[in-house]
Design brief:
Length: 383
């Protein structure tokens, strides 16, 4: 009886547990499936992930449009925040993904030195440890660090605590507050450039808020004889490809300017499109007195041009580049400015310049001013 009972018990136990395991197995499978689905759904909380598709372009507006459209997809991001990001990015790199600070060449040894500053990379000019993290993250993803989609993804998702700061700024409702927040807290640089960053940010806000889809480089040109301030010439590598148009030279100088082809473009130009340096390079090439690339910011040209063997003077002459030190003749207090001398008054105390980045900043607009000779101006002869 015992034996029978035990045998019967074993049989019943096996059948009982066998029946029990079937629903338990189904429940566990269902729970596993739910966990996988939750994991996948959780993955979509990444504001960008692999969905970022930024289109690289030498045209600033096309690049800005692509960045804008990608950022717009992130929940909670505002037009004011996006514009603030674009304004900061324009000052940092000229919206050029391959920019290296001061037009320097890529050096693998220097690039991976975390303590090395003044060697910033990319759209937002990541420097020191953040530059190294940018490069390492690109390697880990098998990406080129100059890939604009990668750079935006890095900024939003792989820049440590700074990614959180960026998202915070992107969700602000005031263009002014967001621009300064991103400059001071996220970029952590550019002291003294708040006004120029805000001006650019407001321009982008107006552009996208109005739905303006016209190319940035074709904004109508207006001549100017006022002392409108320049908006800086941060140096990055960017071959501008769009054309520009010019309206009228001031009447009192009109007969003195013989070569009036202000739309000439030199494809070897590495200065950022629309900046004062970009225009000066093109114009000097057209006049037959070319200047080198990589002379740095406009205010630096007085020094760097001389270092490269060009002649300089403190007196204006037609066909020279004038380098204005920061703050001189309205030049921005950080970068200075450059323009091309088109004519000189009979007494040599006043001169007409053609220049870019004064009227409709960043658009490639060429405008004119009459300048009174003074301190902080250096005149550079091309080759």
């Amino acid at each position: 009886m015992k034996a029978f009972g035990l045998k019967h018990l074993k049989k019943r136990s096996f059948g009982f547990y066998a029946r029990l395991f079937v629903p338990v197995g189904l429940v566990l499978s269902f729970l596993l499936l739910v966990a996988i689905l939750v994991g996948l759904m959780g993955g979509t909380s990444n504001p960008c992930g692999t969905n970022i598709q930024v289109i690289s372009s030498a045209d600033q507006k096309a690049m800005a449009q692509s960045l804008h459209d990608n950022l717009k997809n992130i929940q909670g991001v505002t037009e004011a925040g996006i514009s603030a990001y674009l304004g900061n990015t324009q000052v940092e790199s000229g919206l050029n993904v391959s920019a290296i600070e001061s037009g320097q060449a890529f050096d693998d040894t220097k690039a991976y030195q975390q303590s090395l500053g003044g060697y910033a990379f990319g759209l937002n000019q990541w420097d020191k440890g953040r530059r190294v993290n940018l490069l390492k993250e690109a390697q880990s993803q098998g990406k080129d660090w100059k890939d604009p989609s990668f750079q935006l993804d890095f900024a939003l998702n792989h820049d440590g605590a700074d990614s959180d700061l960026l998202k915070q700024g992107l969700k602000m409702n005031s263009v002014e507050e967001a621009t300064e927040f991103l400059r001071a807290k996220w970029e952590r640089g550019g002291a003294g450039t708040t006004s120029i960053r805000t001006e650019y940010a407001k321009k982008w806000y107006q552009t996208f808020a109005s739905g303006d889809t016209s190319p940035l480089a074709t904004v109508d040109v207006t001549s100017s004889t006022s002392s409108s301030s320049d908006n800086g010439c941060p140096i990055t590598e960017n071959k501008g490809s769009a054309s520009v148009a010019v309206k009228e030279i001031p009447e009192n100088y009109r007969d003195k300017v013989t070569n009036q082809n202000f739309t000439s473009l030199d494809r070897s130009n590495t200065y950022p499109f629309g900046e004062c340096t970009w225009y000066a390079y093109n114009r000097m090439s057209e006049l037959g007195h070319p200047v080198p690339n990589y002379l740095q910011n406009g205010g630096d040209w007085a020094r760097t041009a001389k270092e490269k063997g060009l002649s300089t003077s403190d007196k204006p002459s037609v066909g020279t580049v004038v380098s204005f030190q920061p703050g001189v003749a309205g030049a921005v207090a950080v970068y200075g400015h450059v323009a091309v001398v088109e004519a000189v008054s009979d007494d040599g105390q006043k001169f007409l310049v053609s220049e870019a980045n004064v009227v409709n900043p960043g658009s490639g607009t060429v405008s004119f001013r009459e300048i009174t000779l003074g301190a902080g101006m250096t005149f550079i002869s091309g080759k």
